[in-house]
Amino acid sequence: MIPLLVVKNLNKDFESSGESFEVFKSLNFEIYPKTSTALLGESGSGKTTLIHLIAGLESPDTGLIKINNFEIWKYSEQKRADFRLHNIAVIFQQYNLIPSLNILNNIKFHSKLIKKFDQNFQDEIIELLGLQGLLKKYPEEISGGQQQRVAIARAILTKPKILLADEPTGNLDEENSLVVSRALEILLTRYNSTIIIATHSENLANRLNKKLLIKNKKIRAI
Amino acid sequence: MKIFDVLLMYNFQHWFRKPLQLIFLFLGISLATTLWSSIQLLNSEAKKSYENAVTIISSNQSQLIVSVNNDLIPFENFAKLRRNKWLVTPIIEGKLSDNKKIKIIGVDPFTLSQSNSFYNSFFKTTANNREFLINRKVAFASSTTIKNVSDLDLNLELIETDNLLKDYLLVDISIAEELLNRKGKISRFELTGAIPRDTKILDELGLEIKNSEINSDLKQLTKSFHLNLTAFGFLGFIVGLFIVYSTLNLSFEQRKSSFNSLRLMGISVRTIFLSSLIEIFFLSSISGLLGICFGHVLASSLLPDVASTLNNIYGADINNQLSFSIKEIFIALLMPIIGTILISTGFLFKIYLSERNTNYKHISNTKFYYLKKFTPILVLIILLVITVIILINPTELFLSFVLIAILIISSSILLPIFLESVLFYVNYRFEFENPILKWFFSDTLKQVKRISLSLNALMLSIAVTIGVDNMVKSFEETFSIWLDKRLITEMYVRADSDDLAIKISKEIIKEKNVINVYPIIETKSFIKDTKVSVVGFKPQKLYFDNWPIISKSKDIWEKIQNSNGILINEQLHYKLNVDIGDNIQIANPSNSLNNFNSTVVGIYPDYGNSIPQIMINLNKFEYYYSNILPRNFAIDIVKGTYGDVSELIQNKYEIPNKNIINQATIKEFSKNVFNKTFTVTRSLSDAMIIIATLTLLTSLISLSEIRIINLSPLWALGITRITLLKIEFAQFLLLIFIALVFAIPVGLILCFLLTNYLNVSAFGWKLPYDFYPNIWGKTFLISLLCSLLAIMLPTYLMFKNSASLMIKRYKNEC
Ligand SMILES: Nc1ncnc2c1ncn2[C@@H]1O[C@H](COP(=O)(O)OP(=O)(O)OP(=O)(O)O)[C@@H](O)[C@H]1O
Ligand SMILES: [Mg+2]
């Protein structure tokens, strides 16, 4: 089988106040299609950074990231953005909703944009995640956990090739976390997506196919 | 260190971390202060000059005796008046031929001592008066004047005094005669006692009594000019404060979470509040001081224009140099400090209220929601009611300004409502399928709140410019047509003596190329208690065809010719509230039992005149005011023969060249005066556009820091930055375009208020209200261009920094 995601010799440093700080040192791993992977590691280990690198939001210093044979950092910003728009959905640690749109329009936004909107699927997800009562509100008017579920709904509705989720259950209670895993499962089974989730939650990680651990600037399977 | 000091340091640190914000804050406050203080400086300088002028010409209460024709008075008349028991003192005034700036005033210390005039009190308090009496070879002058005349060979001992205006030399009358080379000619007399009962001698000598109230007239007249300036300065100040507001808003917004953390740590709201207050006070004082310095520079550069306007129109003499005191600086400083504190009350209040702030601001604010939504509408209704009340009786100058203020306030309240309604309608009407379009319009709707202040600044300054320019243009055209009609003939001649006047009226008509002669005569009289000027003219065809008239009754000219019909000027019409068909009684000064009962048959425009005037048939004039002969003549000549006729009458009638005036000369002079009058107004309205553009620029740059947060989610999804840049640009453009469109009707209403109310109450004339779409178009395009430039920089900056800023946001911020 051909891997969906290939990361090779990835190096990433941060410059902050004159000092350089190394996050990854020649990182290597592969992820296969239609799998779900948990990205583990202690706080500050680089989970968010890795997700940004894969999504094409943050650039690596050296190394290669290839998704579906598309070498994401080889192309122009325009191409990269376009690729992200159509193939990747990201659930950010900070939810990242659009403040001037109401919840319903936030949920629709991405899928409409790439013409993958599906009314029935939307209704199903909204109901599953329990967002019915919030549709007319604006992001600033709902709680953190609610915002998080809206962001998840938005990402799932795009039926992405690859879904990157950064702590999707970080703000959720046990019951809601379960609901979220169910929604992700639908994506995995019905739409053949590949899922990568950065998480601290053992429970969530245990429900996924594989686990990767970031430690000492390296990554390894556990 | 105490908590308070730490907090204060923390507050100031914010400004060092955000130098751009600090620059904008300084820019805003100092710009606002510059405009305001420069106008204040100009006004106070003018006021000082008027006050000095009052004391220079005479003391407050005294009366003057001047020549009827404004000529110099032969010295013999002094003796004649004294012999007839008139208590007068002679004064000679004139400009030095060597240095035209220096004005000489010659007084007679002996007769002067009986008066209560300025000079007398001056001598009473000056130790040197003995020397003045005995030595006579002395001159009093201010220190600057002494410097200015040091290179002239005056052969006088100069004594310094603070009581004289710059460039005035006070000398004995005999010295003045020598200096001015004007032996035996007096400028005027000042009455030092009561007026004798018999005033016949004045007529014999061609003299008249004039009250020194001209000075209060001057103050009254120039009042509207200064009010105009003040209004402009104030508007500029407010617009400048808009910059301050948007900057402060941002800085408080950015520190809100820190304030919250501080509060949670246990620092009292009061402490945070106080430290913020001190911070604002400190920043506004420094930038205010800066603004006052700039204001001084600006005022110095505007002063010559202002001085010449006041001089040309009102004959007021203004110092050409600014002077101001520490006290004035302090007063000027109050304005930016109080202004800045006032505009930050909102933020300070929020800090104060934060004590009760719970989780979600929107939910906790629902109680205020309706209040907030309906306050503007309530304010608008109140303003409307006030407007209606004022419109019923709008003659007061102050009320005209209130009307304009109401227009400005209500249009700034309405603009955001208008923008929101338009966008809301678009949003509602077109259910956009395209998510980007949908986002575009809902986001633009939200954007209105964020930049409504700078949009208002822009809208107001464009409205003011359009209003003022439209009015000036209307006036300019009216004025030039009026001037053409009003100057009925090609040539105007003045006779210096009665003999010559008789000769001109009888004989000049026989000369070659002369078509007709129209005598004009003027005197002063009263209607009720109001002083009016009465002009006698011969009603003939030339007047029938040309004289500009605003409104008239039937058979206007027939009634003037054959019965007691009169014309009144617009000023009289408004001031005494008399209209066509009204009967008015004009006092006859020589026989109070024989007043002139007249009927108003026409009203004529009389731009540039400050006093009410009536025009009556020359017959009537001779009947009621027969003692005076016409000295001025309008002479109708064959076209193109001005040179010939002028030469002929100069030689034959011995009329000096200066007494023959060409129509073209008057026209040019008048148009010049006209243009000068509006120089200051125009440059101020141009300045407004610049300030508004700056406001827009600064607030957009400030905004872009917050704006990243709004745009980054879209970027993260995969919309490129260049697309976002285009969207952002289109958004600003759309909002600015609507605001500018909105400005046009506001400007036109403003113009209407200016022409129909402000001009009437300030000057006594109404202006025709014409439309000049090309002026609006020009202003519209210029401001659109300026705004385009103003939005380019912030959007570019945002674009350039966006990648790193956006990514940063995902990691650190919430
Ligand atoms: N812009 C930046 N400049 C400098 N250092 C950074 C920057 N962004 C992240 N880092 C550093 O890189 C490391 C990895 O950060 P990252 O946000 O990826 O951690 P994480 O694994 O997601 O942590 P958490 O579980 O707390 O979310 C951290 O040590 C962080 O301090
Ligand atoms: Mg993280």
Shape of chain B: globular
Percent helix of chain B, as a range, is 55-70%
Helix content of chain A: 25-40%
Number of helices of chain A: 7
CATH topology of chain A: Rossmann fold
Beta content of chain A: 25-35%
Tell me the CATH architecture of chain A.
3-Layer(aba) Sandwich
The major sheet of chain B is characterized as: 10 strands, mixed
The first-to-last residue Cα distance of chain B is 32 Å
Kindly state the number of beta strands of chain A. Answer: 10
The largest chain-to-chain contact, stated as pair and per-chain residue counts, equals: A-B, 34 and 33 residues
Give the names of the bound compounds.
adenosine-5'-triphosphate, magnesium ion
Order of helices and strands of chain A: EEEHEEHEHHHEHEHEE
Overall, the morphology of chain A is globular
Strand order of the largest sheet of chain A: 6-7-8-3-9-10
Uncertain residue segments of chain A: none
Continuous helix count of chain B: 25
Description of the structure:
The complex is a heterodimer of chains A (222) and B (814). By secondary structure, chain A is α/β, with parallel strands linked by helices. Chain A has a single domain, classed as P-loop containing nucleotide triphosphate hydrolases (Rossmann fold). Chain A is built from 7 helices and 10 strands. Chain A has helices spanning 47-55, 77-87, 103-113, 119-129, 144-157, 174-190, 202-206, and strands spanning 5-16, 19-31, 36-40, 62-67, 70-71, 88-91, 162-166, 194-198, 210-215, 218-221. In chain A, the strands form 2 sheets. Chain A has a 6-stranded mixed beta sheet with strand order 6-7-8-3-9-10, sandwiched between helices. In chain A, strand 9 (210-215) and strand 10 form a beta hairpin. In chain A, helix 3 (103-113) packs parallel to helix 5 (144-157) and helix 4 packs antiparallel against helix 5 (144-157). Chain A is globular and about 45 Å long. The model of chain A has no long low-confidence stretch (mean pLDDT 90). Chain B is α+β, with helices and mostly antiparallel strands and 814 residues long. Chain B has 4 domains: 1-58 and 219-359, no CATH class; 59-211, no CATH class; 413-487 and 670-814, no CATH class; 497-655, no CATH class. In chain B, the strands form 4 sheets. In chain B, strands 11, 12, 13, 14, 15, 16, 17, 18, 19 and 20 form a 10-stranded mixed beta sheet that branches. A 6-stranded mixed beta sheet of chain B has the order 7-4-3-9-1-10. In chain B, strand 3 (88-95) and strand 4 form a beta hairpin. The longest helix of chain B is centred in the C-terminal third of the chain and has 55 residues, at 663-717. Mean pLDDT of chain B is 80; it is low at 54-61 and 358-365. The chains are: A alpha/beta (222), B alpha+beta (814). The interface between A and B is medium-sized, with 34 and 33 residues. The complex binds adenosine-5'-triphosphate and magnesium ion.
